[in-house]
Amino acid sequence: MNTYPATATSTARDSGGFTARLRAAEAWMDAKGRKAWIAAMVLGFIFFWPVGLALVAYMTITNRWSKDMFRSSCAARKSRHWAMHAASRPSGNTAFDSYKADTLRRLEEEQEAFEAFLQRLREAKDKSEFDSFMDDRAKGNRAANEDGPRGEY
Q1: What is the pTM of this model?
Q2: How do residues 97-108 score in pLDDT, each as one tens digit?
Q3: Other C-beta atoms within 10 Å of 55: how many?
């Protein structure tokens, strides 16, 4: 049998309860940004590791790791998905649709060519660094052979 009035317990819980403090802390950290969340997580691991682990779980579940963590919403994701879907639909104008298809095909070919160029550039850089390393190594071996004893003990 409950003798307390319902309003007294609900106002006492809402005015200064633990969850209200957590919500206030969350709002404050949201205002400070992602760095505040990461700092709290690191401090949680330093002082008491379960707190840090709980913050990692909370940040992962609420998507606080992303760069736009406070600007993204379900509606924004839906609108991006709809925009991508709308771009692939035919407009009904055959001239425009063929132009769009040609442009997209050309852009994909340019992207593939650029990625191939970057790969060749990385390979050339790696080869030049390896050749430089081998030349330095050969010079080091020649210098060690000239300075060291030649079997005379």
Answers
A1: 0.36
A2: 899 999 999 999
A3: 20
Contact 82, 74 (CB under 8 A): no
* Rounded Cα gap, residues 77 and 84, in angstroms: 11
Contacts of 56 (CB under 8 A, 6+ apart): 41
Torsion from C-alpha of 25, 28, 34, 35, nearest 10 degrees: -90
Helices (H) and strands (E) in the chain, counts: 6, 0
Q: Which residues contact 20 (CB under 8 A, 6 or more apart)?
A: 14
Structure-token pair, residue 3: 């003798």
Question: What number of other Cβ atoms are within 10 A of residue 34's Cβ?
Answer: 17
| Residue 125: predicted pLDDT | 92
Residue-wise pLDDT for 5-35, tens only, equals: 444 444 444 556 888 888 888 888 888 888 8
Among candidates 16, 37, 39, which has minimal Cα distance to 28?
Answer: 37
Of residues 50, 72, 52, the one with CA closest to residue 63:
72
